[in-house]
């Protein structure tokens, strides 16, 4: 109740702040101090409510529905704190909290820069007010009590001391299919508990817990950084609208530039931390899958990066006495960055991507769905409407022609390339809205040429001078980079075995950008070190692209069965399964594998366990990290060796052939369900294994299959009596098109052979993937350097 009161007071103060700042902007006296009081009040209410929610999480107050649904008493402190934002209500609360804190910094920043404060803070306070509406008691407040709506509580989460209460018996229900008992928690039961002096927090002693996929170190880091980036995107939006309100477009780029750099830096770091999280936990060996939810954060980041370059052009041309170039572009990009963050929120929180993304939240309800549309619509109208209103003035005063060999045009062209990439990603991401989805090849094939263009422009724009550059001078400056680029590319082709034309050109463009920026950064390092930011960031992007190229084109992967104690050569490594080791009070198991690479012997320990959260088998990979390559091991399945096998085992991929007692067996393909949504939502689905049997001049078709009803797979064998053959499935990996099979005779059987302890793994080698992570960190360092430099310049 106190939390909802604080949030309501914060909303009222936020609306009051918007009105007072508007009156200040309109010239009313004595309203500026009221505006500041209003915003500080809003911020205090938000911070206090966030602190109250965190306290409720840490003290396991399950009377709050949100805390019951996402928290648990057995979580370590770090992960317990992360349940603050594990669901929709808490993530909106986190976004609101960071927006309020950033608003306090922004208020101080704008108050020192002329008449900027009323216009910027009016818009920013409006954003904060809308976020407060989202976490209000009527929509997605994390402080709503669990008894406000009838909810079924698992009986194991109830204090057993109260189960003997006679009045409680009529609220206990049994689910015969799941073999579970539940207590229906609602207003009626709450009234009974109150009459018996029993608090709900004493009655419910355990929550549902945190999804096992989220029980990872990066859950404590990635979401907060992401929401800081979301919150910071509202600042350039506010600056752009402040310029439109005043119809003066000179100073705002200088004032907004540090915020654009810092916000883009934070959002980019958050996105790649999410990629690293996926790489280290999900077990599919990649860091980016073009998942719609991943993409929805990427699009505003790309637009933010594009805006940096055009804002730089406007700022530079103004310093040289001009009126500024790309003014309209800067306004549009600054506004669109925030609007695309809101669009990202709509896609991920509305449930519209529920069947297309593994990250999407559940449907929030019609009221929240409509409010998300209103939220997005209002700020789109405000932003785009402001530009349309001033379009005639902007067109008359800010239109220029560019010289072909000029840094201005090169930066603008680079921004256009980035915008094109953002449009491609946005189209693919939005496809589920229209009832369709796109393949990852859609993104890869369309973005590859753009990445090449960006690489060349990355290097060329640095070499070009403002206004105009002589061709001879350009060649003279680029000789070292050009020669080095061709040498490195030849080495990549000869030693690395890169023969695809587009990948060779990408190597050329990325290497060219790298060498140009390294050369200039070295020269600047001996002089003005504060000017290093852009070059360091560009070096990071070049390294990232080279890392993507090396990993995507040359990763090797193989699925293999490891019999305990037996050494197997896998991708140049000698692997020996040592057995499993329980930990976490016996709930999880390290599957220890000795890896011998030359004289270097190490042990990897991927993890397998059955999650109580959803009673499903969970797998976590382990990685031997190296500078030139990562050796990646993901567990697939495990046989404890207690049962007897009858037959001959085999692991096959699409197109593979095997022989058994004179029969040739071909694995053709997987037969996937027509409706893939059941696989993604945990519903019932079936996957068949299409096989052809050749025997005595005849061909037969059989299809053993797997069924899953959300409780784990069940395998059904296929029998071919004419060939006296039974084919059983032992393991399945549809993602890698691999299946584990057992061939046996129907009539006479096989000699019973005691099955050994077997661990099936996916092993892969990721060459130079370290360049991806080094590139990202280098890029972030460049952004930070540039942000400090531009922040000092904004005071001049």
Helix content: 40-55%
Would you identify the regions where 5 or more consecutive residues have pLDDT less than 50?
356-360, 750-754
Summed over residues and divided by their number, the pLDDT gives a mean of 85
Please report the number of helical segments: 21
Rounded to an integer in angstroms, the radius of gyration calculated over CA atoms is 30 Å
Please provide the count of β strands: 25
Largest sheet: 6 strands, antiparallel
Shape: globular
SS-derived structural category: alpha+beta
The portion of residues forming beta strands comes to: 15-25%
Intertermini distance: 48 Å
Keywords for this entry:
single chain; 796 residues; 6-stranded antiparallel sheet
In short:
By secondary structure, the chain is of the alpha+beta class.
Q: Topology of this structure?
A:
Elements: H1 2-25, H2 32-58, H3 65-70, H4 77-82, H5 88-111, H6 116-134, E1 151-154, E2 172-175, E3 180-185, H7 187-195, H8 200-203, H9 222-232, H10 234-246, H11 251-281, H12 292-319, H13 327-349, H14 366-397, H15 407-430, H16 440-463, H17 471-494, H18 501-525, H19 533-554, E4 556-563, E5 567-570, E6 573-583, E7 588-597, E8 600-604, E9 607-611, E10 616-620, E11 622-624, E12 629-639, E13 644-645, E14 648-653, E15 657-660, E16 663-671, H20 677-681, E17 685-695, E18 698-702, E19 705-708, E20 713-716, E21 718-720, E22 725-733, E23 738-744, E24 753-754, E25 758-767, H21 770-793
Antiparallel strand pairs: 1-3, 2-3, 4-25, 5-6, 6-7, 7-8, 7-9, 9-10, 11-12, 12-25, 13-24, 14-23, 15-16, 16-17, 17-18, 17-19, 19-20, 21-22, 22-23
Helix pairs in contact: 1-2, 1-6, 2-5, 5-6, 5-9, 6-10, 9-11, 10-11, 10-13, 10-14, 11-12, 11-21, 12-13, 12-15, 13-14, 15-16, 16-18, 16-19, 17-18, 18-19, 19-21
């Amino acid at each position: 109740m106190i939390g909802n009161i604080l949030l309501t007071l914060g909303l009222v103060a936020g609306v009051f702040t918007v009105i007072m700042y508007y009156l200040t902007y309109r010239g009313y006296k004595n309203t500026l101090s009221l505006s500041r009081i209003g915003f500080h009040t809003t911020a205090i209410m938000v911070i206090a409510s966030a602190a109250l929610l965190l306290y409720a999480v840490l003290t396991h107050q399950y009377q709050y529905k949100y805390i019951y649904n996402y928290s648990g008493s057995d979580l370590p402190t770090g992960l317990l704190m992360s349940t603050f934002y594990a669901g929709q209500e808490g993530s909106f609360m986190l976004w609101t909290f960071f927006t309020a804190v950033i608003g306090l910094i922004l208020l101080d920043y704008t108050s020192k820069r002329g008449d900027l404060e009323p216009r910027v803070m009016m818009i920013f306070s409006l954003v904060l007010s809308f976020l407060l509406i989202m976490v209000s008691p009527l929509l997605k407040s994390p402080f709503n009590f669990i008894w406000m709506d009838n909810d079924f509580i698992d009986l194991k989460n109830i204090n057993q001391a109260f189960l003997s209460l006679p009045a409680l018996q009529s609220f206990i229900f049994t689910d015969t299919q799941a073999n579970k008992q539940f207590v229906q928690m609602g207003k009626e039961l709450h009234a009974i508990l109150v009459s018996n002096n029993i608090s709900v927090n004493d009655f419910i002693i355990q929550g549902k817990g945190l999804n096992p996929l989220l029980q990872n170190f990066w859950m404590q880091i990635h979401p907060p950084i992401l929401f800081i980036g979301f919150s910071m995107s509202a600042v350039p939006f506010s600056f752009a609208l402040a310029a439109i309100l005043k119809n003066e477009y000179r100073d705002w780029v200088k004032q907004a530039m540090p915020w654009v750099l810092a916000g883009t830096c934070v959002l980019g770091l958050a996105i790649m931390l999410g990629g690293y999280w996926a790489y280290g936990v999900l077990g599919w060996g990649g860091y980016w899958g073009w998942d719609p939810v991943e993409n929805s954060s990427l699009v505003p980041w790309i637009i933010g990066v594009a805006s940096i370059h055009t804002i730089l052009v406007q700022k530079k041309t103004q310093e040289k006495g001009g009126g500024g170039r790309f003014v309209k572009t800067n306004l549009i990009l600054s506004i669109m960055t925030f609007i695309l963050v809101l669009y990202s929120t709509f896609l991920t929180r509305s449930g519209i991507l529920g069947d297309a993304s593994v990250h999407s939240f559940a449907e929030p309800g019609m009221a929240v769905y409509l409010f998300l549309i209103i939220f997005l619509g209002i700020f789109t109208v405000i932003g785009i409407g402001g530009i349309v209103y001033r379009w005639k003035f902007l067109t008359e005063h800010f239109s220029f022609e560019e010289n072909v060999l000029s840094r201005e045009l090169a930066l603008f062209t680079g921004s256009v390339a980035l915008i094109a990439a953002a449009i491609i990603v946005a189209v693919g991401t939005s496809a589920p809205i229209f009832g369709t989805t796109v393949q990852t090849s859609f993104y890869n094939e369309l973005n590859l040429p753009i990445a090449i263009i960006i690489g060349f422009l990355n290097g060329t724009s640095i070499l070009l001078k403002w206004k105009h550059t002589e061709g001879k001078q350009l060649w003279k400056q680029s000789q070292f980079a050009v020669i080095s680029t061709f040498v490195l590319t030849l080495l990549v082709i000869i030693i690395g075995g890169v023969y695809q034309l587009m990948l060779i050109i990408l190597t050329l463009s990325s290497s060219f950008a790298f060498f140009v920026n390294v050369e200039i950064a070295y020269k600047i390092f001996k002089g003005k070190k504060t000017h290093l930011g852009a070059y360091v960031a560009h070096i990071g992007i070049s390294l990232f692209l080279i890392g993507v190229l090396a990993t995507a084109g040359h990763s090797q992967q193989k699925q293999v069965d490891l019999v305990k104690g037996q050494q197997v050569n896998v991708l140049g490594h000698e692997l020996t399964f040592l057995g499993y080791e329980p930990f976490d009070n016996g709930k999880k198991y390290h599957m220890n594998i000795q890896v011998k690479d030359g004289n270097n012997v190490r042990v990897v320990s991927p993890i397998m366990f059955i999650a109580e959260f959803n009673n499903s088998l969970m797998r976590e990979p382990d990685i031997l990290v190296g500078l030139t390559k990562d050796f990646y091991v993901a567990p697939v399945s495990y046989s404890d060796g207690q049962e007897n096998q009858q037959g001959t085992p085999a692991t096959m991929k699409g197109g593979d052939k095997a022989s058994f007692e004179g029969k040739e067996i071909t694995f053709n393909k997987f037969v996937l369900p027509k409706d893939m949504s059941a696989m993604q939502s945990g519903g019932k689905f079936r996957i068949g294994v299409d096989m052809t049997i050749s025997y005595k001049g005849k061909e037969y078709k059989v299809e053993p299959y797997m069924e899953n009803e959300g409780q784990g797979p069940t395998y059904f064998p296929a029998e071919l009596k004419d060939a006296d053959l039974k084919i059983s499935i032992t393991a399945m990996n549809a993602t890698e098109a691999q299946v584990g099979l057992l061939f046996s005779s129907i009539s006479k059987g096989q000699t019973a052979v005691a099955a050994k302890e077997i661990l099936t793994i996916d092993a892969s080698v990721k060459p130079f993937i370290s360049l991806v992570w080094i590139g990202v960190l280098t890029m972030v360092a460049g952004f930070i350097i540039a942000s400090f430099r531009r922040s000092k310049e904004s005071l001049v």
